[in-house]
Amino acid sequence: MTTVRRDRIKPMRYPDVSTVTWPHFDPEALPAPKADSPSLFAVFAGPLEAVTQPALGQPRPDRPDRHAPDLATLSDPAFLAERQRRFARTYPGGDRRAVASIWSKWLYNAVLPTFIGLLMTEGRGWTGERSAIGVVLDSDARPERLWLRSPAVIGASVSVGEGLERLMTGLLAPVIETLARESGASRNVFWSNAGNVVEYLVGEMAQHPAITLEAQRDSFAFLDRRHLPSGERNPLWRPVRYRSVPTGQGEIARLRRVCCIRYLLPATATCANCPLNCRQRDAQASGTAGPEVARLAPGMA
C-alpha cells in the first residue's frame, strides 16, 4: 500500500446523502448576522465560503411542523424518536438504522463546519452550554442550519485537542447515544459519520486564508490518537484511510473505516468512500470472491 500525505490529497465532497428537495425556513424568520460579531462570520471564507452560516438567537419557526431545538432537547429520546419517524418518510420502507445514519450526516454537516473552522483558525472552542446552541429542522425533521444564542457560545480559548474533545464528549456523544438506542444501529456508525466530516474539514481547512500549519498538524494528530488523555478510546480515531487504487495510474482512494449502512435504504447503493467497495475490489483482484462480496451486518460496523 502506498503511503500518501494527507495534505496532498483532495478528498471527495461530503456529504454522501441523497439529493432531495424540501421546504426551507423563511429566511426572513431567521436572525441575521449581527455587526458586532465580525470574527464569527469572518471564518466563512475559503473552503467554508459556501457553508450556511449559523443564525444568532434561537429561531422561531414559521410553521408548527418545523422546530429549532437546542442540543439538550435534541438528545431527548422522545423528541428525537418523533423526529426520526418524520425523517423516515423521506425513505419509505427504509431500515430505521440506515435512516438514523443518514439523519446524523445532515446534523454533522449543519453543525461541525462552524466549530471546526473557529477552532482551527482562532483557537476558539465551545463553552459547553448545551442550551445555547441548536439546529434548525425543516418540515421533514432534516437538520439544515446551526443556531447560536450568541457568538460567545464558541468563545472559550482552547487548544485544538481540547476543543475537539469537548465537541465529542459534550456535543456529539449525548446525541449519538440517543440515536443508537432509538435506531438500534451501532454507535460506531454514528461516530464514523462524524469522523468522516471532521477529517474532511480538517483537510479542506488547509486552503483557509487564516489557517496555520500548527493547527492542521494538531488536528490530524488528534485523529491519529487512539486514546484520549483520560485513557478512554478516541471514537474519532482514524475515521478515514487512504490507499492506492490498483489501476497503475497512481490513483488514491479515500475510504471510510466503518460503513455508514446507507445501502440498507431502498434503491440506494454504497457511497464512493465505502470500505465495502474496497473489500469487493480486493476480493475480485485476488480471485477469492464472485461478483459480489457479502456485506457486514450493520451491528458489526
How much of the sequence lies in strands comes to 5-15%
Largest sheet: 3 strands, mixed
Which value, in Å, is the CA radius of gyration? 19 Å
CATH T-level fold name of the domain at 42-238:
Transferase(Phosphotransferase), domain 1
Order of helices and strands: HEHHHEEEEHHHEEH
Strand order of the largest sheet: 1-4-3
Rounded average pLDDT: 81
Classify the helix fraction into a percent range.
25-40%
CATH class of the domain at 42-238: Mainly Alpha
Supply the helix-strand structural class.
mainly alpha
The stretches of 5 or more residues where confidence is low (pLDDT under 50) are 1-37, 281-301
What CATH architecture of the domain at 42-238 would you give?
A: Orthogonal Bundle
Form type: globular
Please, how many helices? 8
The number of distinct β-strands equals: 7
Distance between the termini: 23 Å
